[in-house]
Design goal:
This protein is an alpha+beta fold. Helix content is 54%, strand content 12%.
Length: 446
Amino acid sequence: MFTSFIPSHEAAQWLLGVIRHMLDAVGLRHEPRIESFLYIFIVAAVAVSIGWAVRRGILYVVRRLAGMKHTALDNELLHSRVFTKCSHVIVPMVLLSLVPFTLEYESQMRVVVMRILYVYAIMAGTYAMTAVVDFIWWRYNRRENTRNLPLQGIANTMKGVLWMIAFIVSVSVLIDKSPAALLTGLGAFAAALMLIFKDSILGFVAGIQLSQNDMVRIGDWIVVPDTPVNGNVIDISLSTVKVRNFDNTIVTCPPYMLVQQSFQNWRGMGESGARRVSYDLTVENSSIHAADDTFIDAMAAKYPMLKSWVDGVRESHAGAAYSTGLMEVNGSIETNLGLFRAYVCRYLINHPQVAKDQQMLVRLNTPVSQGTTLNVYVFTATTDWTLYEAIKSEILEHITAAAASFGIRLYTPITGIVGGEPGPTVSPSTLRPIVPSGSSEPKANH
């Protein structure tokens, strides 16, 4: 009988009587199929309405209580809709409590409905737990994660584990088997599952390594060799790392790629507050010559910042100055190139945008076929990209222009030289060299 699942108590029989009167009113026969369908429909509609009303009532009370406290946690809970997401579990709980009064205990219909409602309750409960995990991660990432560690992958893994457990338990409820027996049966598919979830498993392990070793954070500028990755990290999830390149393109790569191969992280440069300038200038060997006293005195008169250094070297009778400090003059009065090196050092030491707590070198590297390589190695006092490029360009422009005053010719593939013929072709007023702080001479506006 189709009505065998309808219990015999007064409430169920009264509802069945109402259904029959409705059928009589519209001229339909008392068909058991129709009566059963209407009974299920009315009971389900009433149960869902009660569940919805209970859910809305509880949400209203909770929101009012949270709004009365005006604490940061309560406001964040309301803003992230955690209460709303967790309240979805109320409806299946109400339905499960009403089923025993609306369906016969021994009927097959009751068994089917109860299993479906159990699965509904499991899914709603899992959805609520994932909402709590999302809120915990969001709150920790906003307030406690000062180092911007990539924790989203771990949060995604926790949610994935919760949904996997919910799926296994739901299947075990539907087929009326123990979850342990179901897991035993799934053991045969372990290899296939590992292949399917290979990226997720590797991403989870890589996420732990990235977080534990503090290898990369949100906002870091990273460069991965042999890939188009060269920009700021904007997101790190279980399966991908998103990088916004400097041309505003988005590049994605798996997290385990950052663990399996080396990559460059520029975070240390940003934290130091200084950025390196390392530039090579090629000096034609034919333009290097010995410096006599007349030439030295002329350069000292033209560039007052050199005079005290030249006097010190002459008094020591050393011909050159050596020091182990970070910001020290490195040059000699034996050649025009040595004097030029000393001038460049003095210029960089007195430059207001050069970091004074970082290493500075003006050195000669391995000669090349075009001449001798002069390397300028210094750090700017800022890491801002635009300002850094402006400072670097200013320094190189000044050094290139000053080279001709010392008789230095710089090689280029087009004309062979930069800076003109040997000799003091550039006047001091044109170069406007920087004067140390406290001097009576005005500072140049570079």
